[in-house]
Amino acid sequence: MNRSSQPSLQTAAEALRGDPRIAQAKQLILDAVAEHAGSLTTVRAANPATAADYEQLLSAAAATRGGPLIWPYLSAGLGNGPYVELADGSVKLDFIGGIGVYGCGHSDPGTITAAIDAAIEDVPMQGNLQQHPPSIRMAERLIELAASDEAPLRHCMLSTSGAMANENALKLAFHKAAPADRILAFDNAFAGRSLALAAITDRPNYRQGLPLTLSVDYLPSLDVNAPERSTRWAVDELRRLLARHPGRYAGFWAELIAGEGGYYPGSHDFFAALCEPIRAAGIPIIFDEVQSFSRTSRPFAFQHFGLEKYADIVTVGKITQVCATLYRESFKPTAPILSQTFTGASSSIAVGLATLDALRDRGCFGDDGWNIRRHRYFAAALTELAAKHPGKIAGPFGEAMMIAFTPGDGSYDHAKRLMDLMFNEGLLGFVCGSNPTRLRFLPPPVITTEAHIDAAIELLDQALAKFELRP
Ligand SMILES: Cc1ncc(COP(=O)(O)O)c(C=O)c1O
C-alpha cells in the first residue's frame, strides 16, 4: 500500500508536535488525571448532598431534549478503566460504555494523550474540504485490517455516525445496482436512525409516523437450537423473494451478530448459504459492523465467521470513534453521491487510531485471543449465576465481547426492572431485543480484566437477589 499519509513533513506543525514542552505538558496532565482517578477503583453510592442538584440536572436534560434521559446517567468527567464517576458522586462499573464506544474505558491515558494531540491541531473538525494526514491514516488502517485477497475492500469513507456510514453504504449499493430499489434484511435488524435506516430496522415503533422510504423484505435469522432447519427456512424464503422481485434487490443488509435486535449471532454456514445465491443474483452484500467491530476473534465479524469473499461494503462505528464505510473498487461511485462537511472530529480520529493500536497490542484477537477467552470466563460465570437464581436469568447469549442474558420471563418490564436494580447496585448493562428483551454487556475490550468480570458478576448477583419475578 502507498503509505502516502506518513511522509516526514518539515512543517511548523511538526515542530510544534515535537516540542518538548508539549510532551512535558501531556505528562503533567496524565499524572494529575492518574492521581485524581486513583480512588475510582470500585463502585460507590451517590453523595446524598448532591441529590437535589443531580435531580435538577436530570430535569434540565429532560426539558432540553423533550423527554427524560433513557437512564439517570450524567458523567462527572472522570473514570478509571471500566469505572466511571457520575455527577452525583456515585461510581459505576460501566459494562456498556455508551453502547460499545469506549474501547479503552474511562480516562484512559492513551486516549487522553491522543485527544490532546488532536486538541492542538489547527481545527477541531475534519471534513471534505479539510482533511489532515491522520484522516488518511485512519482510512488506511481500516482498509489494512479489512482487506485480504478475498475481501478487496480498497476504499474507505469516514463519517461522524454509524447512521451516516450506513447511509453511505446504502447509497453505494443503490448507485451500483440501479435501478434496483429493494433491500433484503433480517428479522431483528437495526441499522440506525435515519429515515432510510428506520425502514431497514425491524422495529415498527422506531418508524411510527415516518414515511417509508425503502422497500425492505426480511429473512428469518439463524436459530442456534435448530441451525439446519432455520438455515433451510431462510434460504427457501430468500429464493421465494428473489423469484418474486427479480432484479429489484440493491442490497443484502446483514449484522453478523444482531446487536440492538437482541444479540443473535449467525454462523459461517448460515451466512454462506444465503450469500451464495445472493452473490449469484448480483446483489451487493453489506455487512453492518457498527456494533460488532473489534468484539470477536478478529477485528471484523465477517473475518470471525470466514465470510471475506462476500464482503462488498462494510461499515464500522462506535469503538472506532470516527465511523467509516469500506467498499470494493467495483463500488466506486461514478457521480458525487458522497460528501460531508464533517467526516470526523480531529479528536475522534486520533482516539480511533490509538484504540486500533491498543486493541492489537492487548492481544484482543485470535482464535484463542483475549476477546474469546474473556467470553468463556464471563459466560461460565453467568451460567453459574443462572443456576443460583433459577428462573431469574437465562443464557448467556451473544458472541465474544458482546454478551447478553434474558431476565425473568423475557418481557421488557422484567429486563427494565433488573437493569434499574443493576444500575442502583452500580453495574451498567443495557436492554436489547424484544420478545424476549435481553440485557447486554459490551465491556471495553482493551482494558476489561477477569477481576472486572468477577466484580460485575458480584453486582449482578446482588441485583438478582432483589429481583422479584412478579409480572
Ligand atoms: C449495528 C448498528 N448499526 C448502526 C447503528 C447506528 O449508529 P449511530 O447510532 O452511531 O448512528 C448502530 C447503533 O447502535 C448499530 O448498532
SSE topology sketch:
Elements: H1 12-18, H2 20-37, H3 51-65, E1 75-80, E2 83-86, E3 91-94, H4 97-100, H5 109-119, E4 125-126, H6 133-146, E5 155-159, H7 162-177, E6 182-186, H8 195-200, E7 215-219, H9 227-244, E8 249-254, E9 257-258, E10 264-265, H10 268-280, E11 285-289, H11 301-304, E12 313-316, E13 323-327, E14 344-345, H12 346-361, H13 370-388, E15 393-399, E16 402-407, H14 412-425, E17 427-428, E18 430-432, E19 438-441, H15 450-466
Parallel strand pairs: 3-17, 6-7, 6-8, 8-11, 11-12
Antiparallel strand pairs: 1-2, 2-3, 4-14, 5-13, 9-10, 12-13, 15-16, 16-19, 18-19
Helix pairs in contact: 2-5, 5-12, 6-12, 9-10, 13-15, 14-15
This protein binds pyridoxal-5'-phosphate.
Structural features, described:
The chain has 15 helices and 19 strands. The strands form five sheets. The protein has a seven-stranded mixed sheet with strand order 5-13-12-11-8-6-7, with helices on both faces. It starts with 11 loop residues before the first helix and ends in a 5-residue tail after the last helix. Strand 1 and strand 2 form a beta hairpin. It folds into two domains: 198 residues, Alpha-Beta Complex (Aspartate Aminotransferase, domain 1); 237 residues, 3-Layer(aba) Sandwich (Aspartate Aminotransferase, domain 2), CATH 3.40.640.10. Helix 2 packs across helix 5, helix 6 runs parallel beside helix 12 and helix 13 runs parallel beside helix 15. The radius of gyration is 23 Å and the shape is globular. The model has no long low-confidence stretch (mean pLDDT 96). By secondary structure, the protein is α/β, with parallel strands linked by helices. Bound molecules: pyridoxal-5'-phosphate.
